[in-house]
Design brief:
Length: 261
């Protein structure tokens, strides 16, 4: 599933090429979605919120997509060859000399004005980890409402607490802050949670920055199970965690389980 930094870059690209442009044509394979309702509308902005992408129109409507594991957005020049088969396109928006294609996204919906406030997913999202600044007070408030024995690794993936962190950056940020994925929520103080969120935000901002080097920095623990820790040499461990069974990676020496502060 694309993480918040990927969605941020996608939104920035689409904002560059589509914002303040009129939709001149639209086509869709999404049942129940009337593409013609977007034709003639001007795109005011393209934004990311965690792992969600929002295209806002001058009508007050919002096109909401969630890419999950399979989806992506591409922007092409009109007439340019697409990088994927046309049959994978769930929605195509043409804005003059640019064409935006949404491939394989499981969630594609056009929301009425103010519908985000009651949307079953969007209305529950926590602060975006890429906000400047991150609303740490709200993150702490939402985290405090969860069970005290909830594992920290699960908390970081909970999009109702903070939006945008995925498996890569929860593992990397917990390593850098010496936090074990199985430490309970009650095992970290408010200040320690703030530091963890700050590190996650810093890492993801660097990844989202289009001026960053194309080659990503070496990972500390993510997908390095059985290999030596880059810091201490201990073998990296891994194990599925939580209801979604996302694989957590950690160094048992550098990331000991903390007790209640």
């Amino acid at each position: 599933m694309p993480e918040g930094d990927t969605l941020f870059r996608t939104a920035a690209t689409m904002q560059r090429w589509l914002a303040r442009r009129e939709v001149t044509a639209a086509a869709t394979r999404v049942p129940g979605l009337t593409a013609s309702r977007m034709v003639g509308r001007c795109i005011e902005s393209v934004e990311s919120w965690g792992k969600h992408l929002l295209i806002r129109f001058d009508s007050g409507q919002t096109l909401h997509t969630h890419l999950r594991m399979s989806g992506s957005w591409h922007v092409y020049r009109t007439g340019e060859a697409w990088q994927r088969p046309e049959r994978q396109a769930r929605l195509v928006l043409t804005c003059g000399d640019r064409v935006a294609v949404c491939y394989n996204a499981p969630v594609v919906e056009l929301l009425a004005p103010r519908a985000e406030e009651v949307h079953p997913s969007l209305s529950r999202l926590g602060p975006d980890i890429l906000e400047d600044p991150v609303d740490f007070e709200e993150v702490r408030r939402r985290a405090a409402a969860l069970p005290p024995d909830l594992a920290l690794g699960e908390l970081l993936l909970n999009q109702t607490v903070v939006a945008g962190i995925g498996n890569i950056w929860r593992c990397e940020s917990m390593f850098l802050e010496s936090r074990n994925p199985w430490t309970t929520r009650s095992g970290v103080s408010a200040g320690e949670l703030d530091k963890l969120m700050t590190t996650a935000s810093r890492l993801m901002r660097a990844s989202a920055d289009p001026k960053s080097p194309a080659r990503p920095a070496p990972r500390w623990v993510y997908r390095r199970a059985g290999r030596p820790c880059r810091r201490c040499g201990t073998k990296i461990e891994s194990r599925p965690q939580g209801e979604q069974a996302r694989t957590a990676y950690w160094c048992p020496t550098c990331q000991p389980i903390a007790t209640s502060p």
